[in-house]
Amino acid sequence: MALKSTIYKIDVNIADMDRHYYQQHNLTLAKHPSETDERLMVRLLAFVLNANEALQFGNGLSDDDEPDLWQKDLTGAIERWICVGLPDEREIRKACGRANHVVQVLYGGRTADMWWAQNSKAMLKLNNVTVINLPETEQLSAAAARSLSISFTIQDAQILVSHAGGSFEISPVILKE
Q1: Burial zone of 107 (CB within 10 Å; 0-12 exposed, 13-18 middle, 19+ buried)
Q2: What does UniProt give as the signal peptide span (predicted)?
């Protein structure tokens, strides 16, 4: 018998002063049985960093042909393809052919640094790719709850995260823009 996804109900308040985006989102996220709390919360942060009305969660781990998040235009063409984790470089090149812009969000500390060291030359050759590293996501992972109210304030590329358990900062590192 296959394991079912765990459903998370998350109320997200976004105040992104860098992009002038201020919005409240009531999200329902499905956590794949093989997914960690850390990856789920990094997916949420990837949503926050790219939030707009057209951005949607894809099937991600459940479907190799879909990203974790994507944004399509009214014709169905993929404008933005957003993936979380440390994929094979071929997967990113394939995504570049399908979408106008690809955003790769790395996490995992030293493992992400090693991935970048191995793949940076190939990534730098691709014109429509942004690579973001989130070096410290442990506190983000600890905030995970099946029912969560969380706020993200972004200013000068710094992210302040606030929830019932406290607040902390995340400093993303843009490796390629």
Answers
A1: buried
A2: none
